[in-house]
Specification:
This protein is α/β, with parallel strands linked by helices. It has helices at 2-27, 76-81, 100-107, 125-135, 147-155, and strands at 54-55, 68-72, 88-89, 113-117, 141-143. The protein has a domain at 54-155: Rhodanese-like domain (Oxidized Rhodanese, domain 1, 3-Layer(aba) Sandwich). It is built from five helices and five strands, in the order αββαβαβαβα. Helix 4 links the parallel strand 4 (113-117) and strand 5 (141-143). The chain is elongated and about 80 Å long. The chain starts with a helix and ends in a 6-residue tail after the last helix. The mean pLDDT is 87.
């Protein structure tokens, strides 16, 4: 018997709340339509920040030359286990852009071109970081397709982990 009273009371609360909600909505001059007049946009395209980048084979990178600023876009732990000679680690985060201070530090090197390599996954963190850097107006930004695996394969005999 007590369960039926609980269900009845819940039904009364739902009915009163529904009538109150519809009444308040009807009194508003900009009330929410009960039935949408046009379809809702569920998937809204996000703007793609970044500029154009150029793929560059590992054999074309001037490893150890100050003319090329080489950036490792992998997380600190991965870059700590192995990184190309002279590469600076700037971890790429899909949600947190590179700070303006870090970008200024990178650009103060006065290099001829920027070469970024990442994890080589799809999407490649190196390519995405390169796009972000290029989007800040930096020119001659390249990325290494295949990421760290391609770099290690090319430098394999020259560098040990």
């Amino acid at each position: 018997m007590r369960g039926l009273t609980l269900v009845r009371d819940a039904g009364i609360v739902v009915a009163i709340s529904t009538v109150a909600a519809f009444s308040v909505n009807a009194l508003r001059h900009d009330g929410i339509p009960i039935v949408a007049k046009e379809p809702y946009r569920i998937l809204v395209p996000c703007p793609e920040p970044g500029g154009d980048v150029i793929p560059l084979a590992p054999a074309d990178v001037r490893w150890g030359d100050a003319a090329d600023l080489v950036i490792d876009a992998r997380p600190v732990a991965e870059a700590g286990s192995w990184s190309a000679p002279g590469a600076q680690n700037v971890p790429f985060d899909y949600l947190d852009p590179v700070s303006d201070d870090k970008l200024s530090d990178l650009l103060s090197t006065r290099c001829d071109r920027v070469v970024v390599y990442g994890d080589g996954d799809r999407p490649d963190s190196g390519e995405e970081l390169a796009r972000e850097i290029s989007g800040h107006g930096v020119r001659n930004v390249h990325f290494v397709p295949g990421g760290v695996a391609a770099v290690r394969t090319h430098l394999g005999a020259q560098v040990t982990p």
